[in-house]
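Workshop exercise sheet. Pairs work together: one partner reads the sequence aloud, the other fills in the structure field after running the prediction. Swap roles for the next sheet.
Pair: D.N. / O.F.
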Amino acid sequence: PVLRIDGDLHDLKQDPISNSVLENILNNLLTAEQYQRLIKYHQLDFAVNVADVRLRANAFRHLHGYALALR
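Structure field:
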């Protein structure tokens, strides 16, 4: 995982999140309809609330599985 803070990238020095774990996270974050759109179109823009903070999110499929960008 990598964070971008004020334009600079910061490696979190943690193992990457496995595709199966990320799919489970997405399945819990998304409604059934959103998850089906992600499967069909291979990308989805959505919003999520985490600890009373609203984040914009983009989930997308790439060569090795899914990825998730939060802003």
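Discussion prompt: DSSP finds two helices and five strands in the chain. What would you look at next?
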